[in-house]
Amino acid sequence: MSDDTFIKWNNENHSGIILNIDGSCLGTPLRASFGGVIRNDAGFYLSSFSGYISDSSDISYDELYSIYQGLILARNLNIDDLVCYSDSLHHINLLKSPTLSLHVYAVLIQDVKDLLEHNNVTIYHTLREGNQCTDFMTKLGASSDTELLYHSSPPEDLLNIVRMDATRTFFFRE
User: Fold this and answer.
1) In percent, how much of the chain has pLDDT > 70?
2) Domain 5-173 carries which CATH code?
């Protein structure tokens, strides 16, 4: 007998703006990418971003860079109050801990921390299945050679996933 677990996108009862982000290294040859989606607490699309990182094969960089780019987009949209979700608990903990000056990404970590400090941003962990839209955006980034692309309207293939999230559709977690 197995315990089936079902996961959905949710805002953990936060009212306001939600940023979901993700970074990844996919395929052979390796393609590093990142992406994110900004929505309101009802799940309605506001903006998104995707990009390809040509010189990276390090998932830590990709995850941190995704958070950085999501916070920059939020700042550019004049969003000060934000809840950010990542499926990388390791990187969330890294951002919540004191910065290690000798960490290979110490400058990027500090840049993210500065953005977190200057805005009212809280960062939380979410499970991968609750982060379907950003998985799509990250794969979109990996499929192009564009370093950073903002999407003021959702890419057509993302629409169905946004609708499923807004209606709180459950996804099976193995």
Assistant:
1) 93
2) 3.30.420.10
